[in-house]
Amino acid sequence: MVAMLAIASPAFAGKGGGNNGHGGKGGTPSGGLILNVVNDANLNGLPNWGESISFTVTSTATAEPHVSVVCKQNGVVVYGATTGYYPTYPWPWTQVMILSSQMWTGGAADCQATLYAYSGSTSTAIGGLAFTVYA
Question: Pick from 33, 37, 79, 91: CA 20 to 30 A from residue 71's CA?
């Protein structure tokens, strides 16, 4: 079962045509993210520690969008992952992220997903999504 949770991030409102992660204005390249709970163990439709997530990605800025996720507990980074969301990405299994790590052994966390467009060695944030992972 896959539960989908769409959350707009005010951090990207008005930046890069982000329009709260739902498309661009005036031709400005932008992108959007929808959080998908892949294995909703407790069937609450929300991301919880130990569950898996992925994203539905839209982008007018690049054909090869990447998503970075950083989660913090009490301001300390306990989880980080980056992956590509396009058909020819060589490591597609990394598009499903398990919400746990050696430093994150339980409990809630505040997370930020950032959508990037790469050009050579330069990356540009084109969308974002703040979300809470529950205990």
Answer: 91
